[in-house]
Amino acid sequence: MRRTAEALRLMIVEDEAAIGLALADALTDEGHRIIGPFTTQREALGALDQTRPDVAILDLTLRDGFCSGLVRELRSRDLPFLVYSGHARKRMTTDDLQGVPWIEKPGCWNELATTLDTLADRVRRTPI
After folding, report:
1. Beta bridge partners of residue 39, listed in sequence order
2. What are the domain boundaries of the chain?
3. 81 burial level (CB within 10 Å; 0-12, 13-18, 19+)
């Protein structure tokens, strides 16, 4: 993976522990600070009450079901996120996911890095 411009606080929400840990390890190696990984929507929502990530990396189907509540919460807090999912974008037509960057698993690291760069630019331009 190529290094993004600066370190980000990345929340990883992924139901498959091995995938979540692999993402966390790779992104930590790139200098990012990781929040999670979380395997349930409930855990992720609880973490949002304690910390503010710069960007969330979100699988859609979690151990406690589809993450529509988490998506709504991220949107209400104006927190950028990307979908990293085995679901094809064309099969997911909810309004809450319109315009959200989408990487289909297994994805490639360069695509993830490029998407994080784009979202990092948004974070730098948005006052907290």
Report:
1. none
2. 9-122
3. buried
H/E stretch holding 73 reads helix 68-76
In order along the chain (128 residues), what is the average pLDDT of each group of 10 residues?
Answer: 68 95 93 96 96 94 91 94 84 75 85 87 63
Residues with Cβ within 8 Å of residue 95, at least 6 apart in sequence: none
Owner of token pair 């949002």: 48
Q: What is the dihedral of CA 75, 78, 82, 83, to 10 degrees?
A: -10
Q: What pLDDT was estimated at residue 2?
A: 45
CATH superfamily assigned to domain 9-122: Response regulator (3.40.50.2300)
Per the document, the length of the chain is 128
